[in-house]
Amino acid sequence: MTIVLKAGKVYRLRKMSNIDNIKNYTVIDLEMTGLSAKNDKIIEIGAARVRGGEIVDTISTLVNPKQHIPQRVQELTGITDSDVENAADMDEAVDNLLDFIGDDIILGQNVTFDYSFLKQWAVNHKRTLSLNAYDTLKIARKCLPAEQSKKLEDLCEYFGVSRENAHRALDDAIETKQIFEKLLALMNEKGEPVESKPLVYKAKKQTPATAHQVRQLKELMAEYGIADIISWDNLTRSQASRLYDEYRSTYINRCVDGSE
């Protein structure tokens, strides 16, 4: 709120809203094997290009993570290991997404999370990546009651947006656009501007798995008959450590329980 003093009087000027100018951007959503940009991988990419407030083009791509998709993620997304077996690899899929985005501002729900995976990929490949974004999560925190959940599914319910194919990338991206439009209307009523912000995520180039880690992991997989879907050339030290612990815990526990 701007305060102007004139002739001894105080005038409160309503903030100028820029809502009518927000018509062109690309909305994105990614599905991953987990929450860690260092250890987990993208399994699906969805994006929609918006011009004049309307969707004019979309992409929807399954991605082969070259590692097992955890059961909880399969149940959440409906995406299985067999679904991604012949899908695009991460390098091809991310390259295509970045080409699709071009110079656009991007939109997403908690978009820094999605960006962290893109940034980690870029750093690992010695690529420069810098994007500006609108984030529906942050905007919702500004204009909705504190007690209102800001999760995408709850925002859809709050605004009456149909929720179809939950946790599938393109569907979530389109729903995010619809939520964004509802939030813009609320911000416009308040006379509040909505500005895109540079996305920030500090990523370090990951080091390859050691020969000892690779040998140890392969021996464990052979012992328990674990399918080899790992991209060994791209396996990092942290990923190898996590996979070894995950496989060891899962399969040893199964043997102890007598389930195998």
Automatic annotation (TrEMBL):
Gene3D superfamilies per the UniProt record, alphabetical: Ribonuclease H-like superfamily/Ribonuclease H
Keyword Nuclease assigned: yes
GO molecular function: 3'-5' exonuclease activity; DNA binding; DNA-directed DNA polymerase activity
Cross-referenced InterPro entries: DnaQ (IPR006054), Ribonucl_H (IPR013520), RNaseH-like_sf (IPR012337), RNaseH_sf (IPR036397)
Nuclease in keyword set: yes
UniProt entry keywords in alphabetical sequence: Exonuclease, Hydrolase, Nuclease
Pfam families cross-referenced by the UniProt entry: RNase_T
GO BP annotations, alphabetical order: DNA replication proofreading
Gene Ontology CC entries for this record: cytosol
SUPFAM superfamilies: Ribonuclease H-like (SSF53098)
SMART domains in UniProt: EXOIII
NCBIfam families: dnaq (TIGR00573)
Name of this chain's protein: 3'-5' exonuclease
Classification of source organism: Bacteria, Bacillati, Bacillota, Clostridia, Lachnospirales
